[in-house]
Every structure is written in C-alpha cells, then in structure tokens.
Predict the 3D structure of the following.
Amino acid sequence: MAKKQDRRRQDRRRHHQTVQDTKRRAHRRAVHEAVEKVQSAFGQFAGESADESVAPETFARHARELLDDDLFAELLALPELAADRGAAMAEEAGPQRAAALAAALAAHADGHPSLSWLAAGLAEGSGDLEQAERLAAGALDALGDQAGADAVALVARMRLGAGRLGDALGLLDGWCSRLPEDEELQAVRAAAFAHARRGDGDGPAAAAGSLARFADRSFLYELRSAVERFVAADPELARWHEETAATFLADVRESAGLGPFDELGGHDALGRAVLEAGPSAASGGGAAAVAALRAEWAWLSGPDRMDGEDLPDDETVLGRFCRAAGTPPELAEAGRAWLRHVRYGLWQVWGLEGPGAGSDATAQERRRPGVWVTDLVTRRQLYVAIPPEQLEGLPRWSVLAGAMVPVAGVWRSGAAMLVLDPALADRAVAAALDTADHLAQVLARELGIRLSRPRRPDRRRPDRRRIAPHGVLADLEPPMEEA
C-alpha cells in the first residue's frame, strides 16, 4: 500500500513538473516575441528620424501610434532611457532635422510625457540645451513621485550641462525633501555640489544657499532639544526613559558587548572596542557614544511596548511628540520623516583617501559638503552630511555604526556614531547576515516553504569560518532586496 502511495506521489510530481516546464517555455516564447516586435518597430521608427523623405509631422504621428503598444510605452516611460534614445536619433539625423523632429514631437506630446522625454533628447542632441530642458521640465507636473524623480534627475542633469547650477539645485532640494529615499536624486545633487567645488557654470555663488542648508545641522539640534524637553515634561515618559537608559548602559558595561553581537571575535572584542580605547565620534569616548545612541533609539519605542513587539508609530516617543498640540508643525513634519525613514546600519565612508587626522588629503575631504556611505549589510548607499567632528581622524575603510536620517531632505548622521575598524566591521556584518538568514529559515518553516539548504555557512562554528571582506566588496555587489 505504501509503495503504491509513493508511486502516485511521484507521478503527481512528474506531471506537475511537466506542466510547469511547458508554461515556462510558453511564457519565455511570448516574452521573446514581444521584445522582438518592439525592437523591430522601434528600429523602423528610429530609421525614420534620419529619413528626409519622412516629414517631421509624420514622424511624430508614428510615435503616438507606437505608444498604443504597452511594452513600447513602458520602454519610453523611463525619462533617461527615452532621452538617450532621442539623443541617439539626433546624432543620426543631424542638428537641423533633430530640432525639427523635437518641435513636432513636442506639439504632439499632450498627455504623453514619454514623447516629451524623446523630444528633449532630440533637442539636446541638436545642441539646443535650453529647449531640451524646457521640454523635459514641462512634463513634470503630470507625473507621480517615482516617475517625477526620474524626470527631475534628467532635468537637473540638463541644467548642469547648461551651466545653470543654481537652478539645478533649486529643483533638486525640493525633490530630495519630497523623496529622500531616491538614490538617483542624491547622486545628481552630489554631482551638483562637485560642480560647485570646481567653480563650474554659474559657480559656487549660485549654490551657496543649497550648500549652507546641506551643512547646517541647527534644525536637527532643534528637533533633538525639543524632543528632550517633551520627554522631560511628561513624568511617565521621563521615568521610563531614565530607567531604560540606565538598564541598557548597565547591561552593556556588565557584558562588555552589544546584545546579539556578543559572540563577535570571542572574548568580548566588540564590547572592548566600543567602550574602552576604541575611537568614537562622540566626545567622552565610547560609553558616551553608546549613551547618545541609546537616547535616540528610545525615540522609536515607548513605555507601552511589550517585549518582542513594535509600537505603532503614533505611540512611540517621537510619535507622541509629533501629535502633541504644542509641537511646531515643521518639527512635527521632521519627526514623522524620522519615523518613516531612519536607518540604522554599519556605514562605510567612501572618499576618505588620507591616512588619518592631520593629513592635507583628509582635511580637504572633510571640507566636502557630503560623503557617500554604504551600509555593509544591505549595501544601501546614501549621500550624507556628516559633521567634521565625526570624521576627525577617520582612516580609510572605517565603518560608522549608528543612525542615518533625512531632515528637511538632507540625510544626516545621528547624535553619535561608533567607529569600527575594517576587520571588526566585517565580523559584525557576518553576524548580521547570519542572523537574517536564520530568521528567513525560521519564517520559511512557519509558512511551509521548503528550503533546499541554508544560503550561508554553518553558524555553529563561527570561529572556524573565513569572514568575507564585506567592506572591500560592498561597492561591487548589488543592493540587497528590500524584502
């Protein structure tokens, strides 16, 4: 009986596998055919750009007709890609015809931002940067957040190309505040600041306001002081905050470790590096930095939290502060942005080439308005305004442990950052990835998902495992998926 049941199960599995294979082949064939169709149609369309016998009006009409194909429409919906296609056509068509094609497309672009991107590329390729920027900017109002961010990046690059640094930063500042998570907007703003440092275009004078706002941490300090006053004015919150901070610091001092990372390196190496002679970005040494980190971490929790549970945002210390009647609107908005976007990580700082404090190279790097950092666990990249005192004497490959948060559209470091040397940071990353892998396996079992094998090495003998140089590889690997 058991053998018959086994055979039936095997037959069902074979049948299921055959059906799935057939479906996958059919899907791949359909995708391949659709891509070939779009490539063929676009090839013919691109050929018309250089064909003098095709009137600009006919060219524009064909573009509108092609947008009826969903795949083609999706292809041109990406501003950078559509503009690049337009610029490539302009190179084939020549400046005079490219300008005529751009004008015809613009006249037919009503309700179709994709045609505006294509027209902008043609205009840029013809040498008319002013017209290119006007066409691209004209489509911004009809877009949602993500498509708008892509378009803003395109328009800002065009303004930079035309030497209009102040106009580019004026556009970028507002959208970086609106969408602080968008890495492309951050990258373009970083490029604009680099232009300002070199004195390109309308020069540092046009960028002075944006640069000053980027470097100014006074609003962050104002938010921190306001939250501290709010906590002190509420006896329940003040008592809870004091008790949890005291308990946390006592536990850290007793164990000389940091919770789940106690095993790192054996003999409490991480705890000693943090609490004793190890460098710290906060005055007063590692213990003071841990206390400052704990104070800001407490904003995300509150007295009503049960062990193992996260509070709703409105019930956290910061959420209560934002809801309070006496909180100024601009501080409440900053607090809500903190709750939505704050990121804790192991952040490697890029662009520090000098050997440490006192070198000319390091002093020059410290004068930069911002630095790029990569979280070694998720490989998420941010362009961050870090105060000079937190970069003081920071050698290359250093890793900052702590919070990064957008305040008024500028990513900033928290009150204090713990500095880890490269080897210690690699071990911390390995521990975090092992923990994440273990949690994924537990969740998979709870959801009935079969895993063939653990993705990462056996965690039972971490002392025998070779730790990967995560800091060296972080800039070469793709970001970890959000899930």
